[in-house]
Design a protein that fits this description.
Two copies of one chain form a homodimer. Chain A is an alpha+beta fold. Helices cover 33% and strands 25% of the residues of chain A. Chain A has two domains: 137 residues, 60s Ribosomal Protein L30, Chain: A; 157 residues, PurM-like C-terminal domain (Phosphoribosyl-aminoimidazole Synthetase, Chain A, domain 2), CATH 3.90.650. A seven-stranded mixed β-sheet of chain A has the order 7-9-6-10-8-11-12. The first copy, chain A, has a four-stranded mixed β-sheet with strand order 2-5-3-4. Chain A starts with a helix and ends in an 11-residue tail after the last strand.
Chain lengths: 321, 321
């Protein structure tokens, strides 16, 4: 099977490449064509996952297909964008038909879940890696940036944190499977492999939240990005940070807190919003939690129950340290 | 230097990341925002280059930066699109400051040449590779696809072919530098490292040419794509295929022809167009050559001077053969 037949078979014919109302031209020409609705910008984001760095080489391909797309679509959610199309550049060591079949099925499952269509890509030979570029539509008259946080706003997260980070030892095969309850382990792995882009919440927040992003590097590090972009301080009450139940069942409290504060990879949203929206927000999105507020100053402060600042050694995951 | 500072320094501050009229929001948030002009679609294409597969590991970084962008922008040219923005996902084995500096300068040089802005990306650790996704604007009422070739149309190419393929032994260090005249070698290497996306021609062809693509896989293979998509036959007169002068100076005639027919990587355009446009076309774009025509049937036929079909053993470069 040559490159063209490979692409044809596994991607062009996959369920997620069958176009949609905003795709006048899909895969197969020099470019795909995307129709951006009138009164909207095209929101664009790119994410790469590299074998041996972001996932183990023997990762289940179906889950990998889901995750690589979810991670990228999460950036659209953080901008309040409606997903339209994505491209996939995949580098493969060899053609492994069952692997490709499962990968494209995982990709399609997440694409359908997020209502986004595969519109193009590139297939190359080399060390296993994939880059997804997502495109969506966001109204020109609203924006959901990192830079708008206002002093006095509440700081919220969209749901419980830490599960993806707590899953990592299991993903990497560093911990025997029977050391934690099977159900808890399953919940952790689901959080890691199948993050749920918070698209509905992101769109609801448009015109209401003052700043937002998705938590990929860890709560503290990502809140640092909002604080820096908005030129404010964010104060987080440690006791109000929601920790995923499965995380609490798999380790000590200190480890669980560490996962929730610095673990990253959960792809929940962190956002700042005026208190007047809180009731409507929590009625519609019951998992949303207020974890702190915006004040004058700079940086992120983690506060104990007495309101005293806690020193944080680890501010989040970074490559190339 | 950590990942964020790395991106900040080499890419966010690079000349090509300083935005433009169609970039309401550039690098730095979860997504960039692109403004697609009214009455236009967003054209999208993705290309990857992998170290050791598409370029030698010790390739000059400035040239690599130019080439990775040119290759992708060439797809916009083939659709008649006006370049707007691009993302770069780059995977690096380590932080090499002079390498990154030169790479980003090469990228910026090509970006400015093509009037396209860097709007986002991802920097990851791993085997050296890069994926560029380009976005442009193409009028909704015109299109320049592979599928519109009409029986009777002329088949044209935008300029001389074969130089990039003939450069490959020098790029790979397989041939001693002194085996060919220095000037010829320089011309070959320039064709390989700094392809010129045919943007002006592509936009001129909108509404005039019936089909077009950029020649990346080789003239014969790419003409095969037009023939298949348009459900026609393309007849190429071998004697009319323009071979780059430097190619003729570096090898035998048979090798030179092989480079021009099957070599690929030149990123000239191949297109079909009604004969009525020919005079205006060649007046404006003097390098354009008619190499054949469109007839009923299927596939690509290479014809000798007597109009007889020539058998072609090699139809172009393909990965994973």
């Amino acid at each position: 099977m040559n490159e063209f037949e490979l692409i044809q078979h596994f991607f062009t014919r996959s369920a997620c490449a069958q176009g949609g109302e905003n795709i006048p031209l899909g895969i197969g020409d020099d470019c795909a064509l995307l129709q951006i609705p009138t009164g909207h910008y095209c929101a664009v984001s790119t994410d790469s996952l590299v074998s041996g760095v972001h996932f183990p080489k023997d990762s289940p391909p179906f889950l990998l297909g889901q995750r690589v797309l979810a991670v990228a679509v999460s950036d659209l959610a953080a901008m309040g964008a409606k997903p339209l199309g994505f491209t996939l550049a995949i580098t493969l060591e060899q053609i492994d038909t069952p692997w490709l079949q499962a990968f494209s099925e995982g990709l399609s499952a997440m694409a359908q879940h997020c209502a986004i269509a595969l519109i193009g890509g590139d297939t190359t030979r080399g060390p296993l890696a994939m880059t997804v570029t997502v495109m969506g539509a966001v109204p020109t008259h609203h924006s959901l940036l990192r830079s708008g946080a206002q002093v006095g706003d509440l700081l919220c997260v969209s749901g419980p944190l830490g599960a993806a980070a707590a899953a990592l030892p299991f993903v990497l095969g560093q911990v025997a499977a029977d050391t934690v309850p099977a159900e808890a382990q399953q919940q952790l792995l689901a959080a890691y492999w199948t993050p749920q882009p918070q698209l509905e919440l992101g769109r609801w927040l448009l015109g209401k939240a003052s700043a937002a992003l998705d938590i990929s590097d860890g709560l503290l590090a990502d809140c640092g990005h909002i604080a820096k972009a908005s030129k404010v301080a964010l104060q987080i009450e440690q006791a109000r940070v929601p920790i995923a139940a499965a995380v609490l069942r798999t380790g000590g409290d200190a480890d669980a807190l560490q996962c929730a504060l610095s673990g990253g990879d959960d792809y929940q949203l962190a956002f700042t919003i005026a208190a007047s929206y809180l009731e409507a927000l929590q009625q519609r999105f019951t998992a949303v939690q207020v974890i702190g507020r915006v004040s004058a100053g700079q940086g992120v402060q983690l506060l104990d129950s007495a309101g005293q600042s806690i020193k944080c050694a680890h501010l989040g995951y970074q490559h190339f340290q």
